[in-house]
Design a protein that fits this description.
- With 353 residues, the chain is an all-alpha fold.
- The protein contains 17 helices and no strands.
- The C terminus is likely disordered.
Length: 353
């Protein structure tokens, strides 16, 4: 079993990422760039997953079977719960035509090909009719699960030849170069498809190289932490989905996330991330991400314009917090690895959400 210490600042980073996405989808003013929360999640995944693989390889205990068992236990219970709950709700409320679309979405989400479906079928994500898709947000999970198919193989082979970080760097650069080249011809391919997202996972993985090769003192750590958080916040407020050269802009939150992770949890800025409330939100971030869009979808479907008022937004946010906390406590925690769980005082703070 892979053992690593709980990283409170990463939990806090997850909190910022998921809250940004939720506020973006709730259409709260000023958070037009909140979709970059997904990019931050990819950086975090690249760091944690690559670190786990490398630790197991160096300890001589890496197993593809165990890796995929752990990933399945971590991802699928809450995903299956979300898909089934959404499907049942759709059966009760959706028209036959919408329900057929939902059935297809559900199948593709469970098969981890949602991103391919949405890329092939429409240009919906940033369009008004994206609200007709109850499981649209599962595209990012599909991209991440596809990443898990290729990344362990790449790292194992690279490590065998003693070129781990050289290969990771090349993979990240090739992925980013391809995203630049393809963006003009097919921007939605760059948005949805895994090969064009590998550079984000790679940025997270390269933090491991910097941790191993470069020892920073306290002043440098303070600078990295402050600059990283500033880049993330600026990205959420300033980046727009329709801005030119978006693929270059996406580097900002990715580098901000990487700098924040590299800085660690001993800086003054990191105290923002490691306070109990942020850690609690970070703990439920996966469940919150899963449940937030179906709640918004059905809220708007059932209540129309009322759902977009401040009262409606607040009501949906409260429902999200309650559902996400329940999912975390009664679904996720039954399957996740002990080292992935936050400190045992989590329930005390989860009541706030």
């Amino acid at each position: 079993m892979t053992i690593h210490r709980f990283r409170a600042e990463i939990a806090g980073l997850r909190a910022i990422a998921v809250v940004s996405v939720v506020l973006f989808h709730l259409k709260v003013g000023g958070f037009d760039g909140g979709f970059v929360g997904v990019d931050i999640f990819f950086v975090i995944s690249g760091y944690l997953i690559s670190g786990n693989i490398l630790r197991d390889l160096h300890a001589g205990r890496f197993s593809f079977g165990q890796f995929y068992i752990r990933r399945t236990r971590r991802i699928y219970p809450a995903l299956i719960f979300t898909v089934v709950a959404t499907y049942i709700t759709g059966a009760l409320w959706c028209s036959p035509e919408m329900f057929l679309d939902l059935a297809k979405e559900s199948t593709h989400a469970l098969l981890s090909i949602s991103n391919i479906q949405y890329w092939r079928e429409s240009h919906r994500y940033f369009a008004p009719n994206s609200e007709e898709l109850a499981l649209l947000h599962c595209w990012s999970l599909s991209a991440e699960e596809q990443f898990y198919l290729v990344w362990p193989v790449l790292i194992v082979l690279a490590t065998k030849f003693g070129r781990t970080f050289q290969v990771i760097t090349i993979a990240a650069l090739v992925s980013f170069a391809l995203s630049i080249l393809i963006a003009k011809a097919d921007p939605l391919a760059v948005f949805f498809l895994m090969p064009f997202r590998i550079f984000e996972f790679g940025i997270g993985a390269l933090v491991l190289l910097f941790e191993a090769r470069f020892r920073h003192d306290k002043s440098i750590a303070e600078g990295l932490s402050a600059a990283g958080l500033l880049l993330i916040v600026a990205s959420v407020f300033l980046i727009r989905s329709d801005m030119p050269h978006l693929e270059w802009a996406i580097l900002l939150p990715c580098l901000g996330g990487a700098a924040t992770i590299w800085a660690g949890n001993e800086t003054r800025t990191s105290k923002i991330l490691t306070n109990p409330a942020m850690v609690a939100v970070g703990a439920i971030s996966y469940s919150l991400y899963l449940c937030h869009w179906p709640i918004i979808f059905f809220g708007r479907f059932l209540f129309g314009d009322q759902a977009n008022t401040w009262v409606g937004i607040l009501a949906m946010a409260v429902v999200m917090g309650v559902v996400a906390t329940a999912m975390y406590l009664f679904v996720e925690r039954r399957f996740i690895q002990p080292s992935d769980a936050p400190p045992t005082n989590f329930p005390r703070y989860s009541a706030a959400f």
